[in-house]
Design goal:
This protein is mainly alpha-helical. It has one domain. Helices cover 73% and strands 0% of the residues. The protein contains 6 helices and no strands. The protein is globular, with a radius of gyration of 15 Å. The termini are far apart.
């Protein structure tokens, strides 16, 4: 029962089993849930959800990886994409189609490209921590891109 719950959470409701590109599907699945959290509780609720998802993701990824007898990052684990994908939504006060598109595209770009600390975490950190942390860094980079978009649009003027 614990392994099933961990798999359900680690794969974000089994969206991580969608092929091809399960990370992209997990990121896409995260967007409407992120919007709903913002709509219901604002960006503070989203920030709390990111922290909770990170902590739950550590547990779920560890249990799922243990059940698969691997320390590598199985492609079906996408809870890391969910936590990372929500980070660039923080600068958005609500549903902003362009902002959401930039958040999605830049997050996927940094998650795949793995520049700087994203690649460092991916290579150096092992187990569930390694699974989760590289996507947090990718989310931070994508969040900076969303902030730049907001600045360029005059949202902070």
């Amino acid at each position: 029962m614990i392994h099933r719950l961990a798999t359900f959470l680690a794969t974000f409701g089994y969206s991580g089993f969608i092929r091809p590109a399960p990370g992209t599907w997990g990121s896409l699945a995260a967007l409407p849930v992120g919007w709903l959290i913002i709509w219901l509780g604002g960006t503070v609720a989203l920030a709390v959800a990111i922290v909770a998802t990170f902590v739950i993701g550590l547990w779920a990824a560890r249990v799922h990886m243990h059940s698969r007898q691997t320390m590598h990052d199985p492609s079906e684990i996408v809870i890391d994409e969910v936590a990372g994908q929500w980070i660039p939504l923080l600068p958005l006060a609500g549903f902003d189609p362009l902002g959401f598109a930039v958040a999605f595209v830049t997050f996927r770009l940094f998650d795949i490209w793995k520049p700087g600390p994203v690649g460092w975490a991916d290579k150096r950190l092992k187990g569930a921590l390694g699974v989760m942390v590289d996507d947090i860094f990718a989310g931070i980079f994508a969040g900076l891109c969303v902030l730049l978009l907001q600045y360029a649009r005059g949202a902070f003027a």
